């Protein structure tokens, strides 16, 4: 038996209870976690916005830690290794999985949604989801290497084509994703990182993590144009409909907008004339691949990404943590100590 937070009913906070130990399968690794991250996706799961959620379930998908035991068929890992997991288990055989795009696997199972997740100390993870964690990466950085930092590498570099010398706009820069995205854009060679936030009190923190400028409020595009002259090469939309149109208008000719956030699940309208005439691209990006995770861990190992810890909660405080996330009370990432 072990303690875990369990989501039994949609629209209600998870409740901490004792759950049965699962059998370790031959392809699985038993991981001991020292903490996990809380993600806005967990809130959306609770609120019923995500499909294919199986109840009751242990929420959470930000898994990392030390290998305690390996199944008989595990090849790459042994007891004592430090590992971090994708937020899902890919099938390994489909057209996406066999071309390095396992984040698009249609058969994947996501932790905390279709299979039990991270809000507990001991988790079983199939080997196919795991990458090795380099020695100088802190546990906090390993925990966010799939869902936060790996996802941002995937969005900015792989999908957004961010190159050395580019100017970049990050919306929602005070959040758990945005505060790391600022650092990653810099680490990937952006010459100018403009950060957007609607929270005045977060501005100072955002500058501290490396943003060159902070903008916010209605029509922040004007400010972006003032700073850059003609707009940004890449915009990363971590919020969704509230900031989408200004992010789109902030692009220069040929600029790319990558959407990874959808906090209020509202549709947006898009001026197609501008899209065409400016030759802009808009793309969605989902989660990370093992390759983008490995890159994020490398940047963490080199000290180029420092985790922005908003607040550390205990497992029993999970409801409180959800409230703080929903009310945007934190600058940076929320963690649960296990
Ligand atoms: Zn997450
Ligand atoms: Zn697949």
As for the number of domains, it is: 2
Helicity range:
25-40%
The fold-level CATH name of the largest domain is: Quinone Oxidoreductase, Chain A, domain 1
CATH superfamily of the largest domain: Medium-chain alcohol dehydrogenases, catalytic domain
Largest sheet descriptor: 6 strands, parallel
Q: What is the residue-averaged pLDDT?
A: 96
What distance lies between the first and last C-alpha atoms, to the nearest angstrom? 15 Å
Question: H/E series, N to C?
Answer: EEEEHEEEEEEHHEHEHEHEHEHEHEHE
Q: What's the gyration radius in Å? A: 19 Å
Number of helices: 10
Q: What is the top-level CATH class of the largest domain?
A: Alpha Beta
Strand line-up in the sheet with most strands:
13-12-11-14-15-16
Q: Please name the CATH architecture of the largest domain.
A: Alpha-Beta Complex
Quick take:
With 338 residues, the chain is an alpha/beta fold. It has two domains: 2-148 and 288-337, Alpha-Beta Complex (Quinone Oxidoreductase, Chain A, domain 1), CATH 3.90.180.10; 161-284, Quinone Oxidoreductase, Chain A, domain 1 (Alpha-Beta Complex), CATH 3.90.180.10.
């Amino acid at each position: 038996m072990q303690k875990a937070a369990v989501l039994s009913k949609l629209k209600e906070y998870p409740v901490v209870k004792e759950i049965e130990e699962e059998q370790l399968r031959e392809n699985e690794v038993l991981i001991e976690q020292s903490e996990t991250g809380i993600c806005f996706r967990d809130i959306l799961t609770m609120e019923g916005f995500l499909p294919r959620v199986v109840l009751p379930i242990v929420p959470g998908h930000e898994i990392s830690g030390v290998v305690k035991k390996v199944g008989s068929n595990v090849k790459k890992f042994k007891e004592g290794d430090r590992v971090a997991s994708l937020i899902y288990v890919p099938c390994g055989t489909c057209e996406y999985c066999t071309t390095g795009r396992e984040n698009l696997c249609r058969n994947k199972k996501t932790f905390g949604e279709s299979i039990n997740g991270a809000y507990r100390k001991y988790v079983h993870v199939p080997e196919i989801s795991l990458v090795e964690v380099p020695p100088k990466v802190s546990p906090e950085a390993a925990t966010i290497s799939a869902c936060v930092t790996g996802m941002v590498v995937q969005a900015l570099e792989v999908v957004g084509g961010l190159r050395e010398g580019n100017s970049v706009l990050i919306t929602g820069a005070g959040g758990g994703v945005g505060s790391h995205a600022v650092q990653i854009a810099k680490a990937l060679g952006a010459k100018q990182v403009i950060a957007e936030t609607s929270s005045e009190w977060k501005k100072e923190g955002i500058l501290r993590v490396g943003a060159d400028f902070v903008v916010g409020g209605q029509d922040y595009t004007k400010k972006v144009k003032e700073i850059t002259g003609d707009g940004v090469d890449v915009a990363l939309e971590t919020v969704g409909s509230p900031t989408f149109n200004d992010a789109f208008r902030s692009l220069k000719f040929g600029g790319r907008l990558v959407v990874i956030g959808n906090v209020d699940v509202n549709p947006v309208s898009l001026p197609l004339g501008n899209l065409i005439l400016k030759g802009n691209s808009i793309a969605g990006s989902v989660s990370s691949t093992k390759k983008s995770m490995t890159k994020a861990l490398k940047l963490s190992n080199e000290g180029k990404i420092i985790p922005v810890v908003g607040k550390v909660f205990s497992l029993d405080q999970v409801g409180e943590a959800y409230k703080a996330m929903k009310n945007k009370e934190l600058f940076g990432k929320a963690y649960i100590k296990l």
